[in-house]
Amino acid sequence: MQPDPSLAPTPAAPPARLPVAPAEPVLMVEHVDKSFGDNHVLRDFSLALHRGENVVVLGKSGSGKSVLIKCIIGLLLPDAGRITVLGQDVTGLGHQQMDELRARVGFLFQSNALYDSMTVRENLLFPLRRHWLRHRRAEEDALVREVLDDVGLAHTATLMPAELSGGMRKRIALARTLILRPDIILYDEPTTGLDPVTSREISHLIRAVQQKYNASALIISHDMSCVRLTADRVALLLDGRCYADGRYEELAASADPRIHEFFA
Amino acid sequence: MPNYPILAEAGGMAHFAGRFFRDGFRPRYEVSEWLYQCYVIGYQSLPLVGVTGFIMGIVLTLQSRPTMAQFGAESWIPAMVGLTIIREMGPIITALIFAGKIGSSIGAELGSMRVTEQIDAMEVSGTNPFKYLVVTRVLATTLMLPVLTLLADAIALYASYIGLNMRGVTTLALFVNNVLSRLAFGDVLPAFIKTFFFGFAVGLIGCYKGFYADKGTEGVGQAANSAVVVSSLVIFILDLVAVQLTGLLGLN
Question: Rounded distance, CA B30 to CA B32, Å?
Fold first, then answer.
C-alpha cells in the first residue's frame, strides 16, 4: 500500500464564485420523473448547469441523487421528462451518438470503478483508446503524465489499483475522466468514505480542475464541507424535487427548517 | 400471478443468449480481448485438465482390468477404454472441471466488476460491456473446451497405455492399433461437437450470473457458486440430449 500523498501540493480553493454573466447552459434537466416500482425517486425534477459552473446537488442518502446523475449519463432512462447535455437530448440518442457524447462528459464514480486488472496507466488510457482517439506512444505518455500531474500522483503510472489508498484511487479516477478533456464532469459523492483531510484535498482538486479546464461540474454530495468548498450553486433535492436552488450562503441563511437542517 | 423463479431464470438466460447472437457478430470486434481470454481460459486450464485426464485414463484401465481378466478379455481393454474416454468420459469430465474452474472464475470476475461499478464505467468509456466482457468470454469458452477435451482424451489414452504396462506388457503401436480399430466416425464426431455446446453453456451461464450479480460481496459469491452449479447441471442435460440425438441419427 502506497502512502496517500497528502503532502502533494494542492492549490488553495478559490472562493465560491458565481459567473458574472449567465453563461450558456450545457446541461438541462427538465421535469424528469424516475420510479423503481412503487418507489418514486425523482418527481418533476428540473435543473440547469451553465458553462464553467460547479453545481452541487445536495440531498439525504437515498434521496435519488445517484439516480439523477445516472439518468444524465444514460445509464438509466428517465420515465418522463427531458435531459439535454451539450445540446443533445440523451433520452433519444442511439448507442453511437451516446458514446460520442460520453467522450465529452466525464463521470467520477462513487466507488471510483478503477479496473482491477489494469495498471494506473492502462486505466487512464482505456477511455482514450475506446473512443478511437489513438495517439502515438509518446503522446499517450505525455497525456498520462499531464493528468497524473494534475492530480498530484505522477509516480503511480505503473501501480495497480489495489496498491493505492482510497484517496489516491479517487484522484486516479478523476485523472481518468480528465484525460478526455471533458466539457462536463459529473461527480458522484466524490468525498464519501474519505477522511476529512483527504476529503478536503479532493474538494480543492475539484476546484483546481474547474479552473484549469473550464469544465462545468455537477457534483452529487451530502458532505457539507465538500459542498461549501466546491459549489458555485447548490440545488437541494428533497422528495424527488428540486426544493431549493441558490448560492451556498443564500441557502445557509435560509429560515426554512427543511433547508436549515442541512446547514445546521 | 404465480411466481416461478426457475422459469424466470431460464427466460433470462435465453434472452441473454439471444443478445449474444444479436450483438456478438456485429462490429466493433474485440479481437485482442478475445485472444487474451483464449489464453486465460485455454492455456491456463491446461495443467488441471491434463492431470484430470491422466488420472481418468489410468484409473479406468486399472479398475476394468480385473473384470476383463476374469473373462479373458484383457486384449479388449484398449478398445473399451478408448471408446469410453472419447465418447463420454473425456468430454463430460473435462467439461465439469472446466465449469468448476472457468465458470466460477467468470462469475466472480464479472460479479465483482458489477458490484464495483466497473461495468458501468466501461459503458461510460464508450465500450459496450456486453461485447467486451461477455461475447469475448463466451466465444473463448466455446472454442477452448473442444481443444482442451482433445488434449485430455490424448493424455487419458496415454495414461491408459501406462496403466496396462503396470501389470503387463503392451507396445504403444499395438495399443494405438487396438484403440483405433474399434473407433468409428460416429464415436468421435458427435462427442467432439457436443463439447462446443458444453463450452458455450459454461461461458454463457458464468457471464449471465456475473453480469447480473446482486449488489454486495455476497452477490459475487452467489454468482460464482451458481455459475458452477447451473452449468454443471446444464452439461448433463446437454449430454442427455446429445445421446438421444445421436441415437436418432443412427450414430450410437
Answer: 6
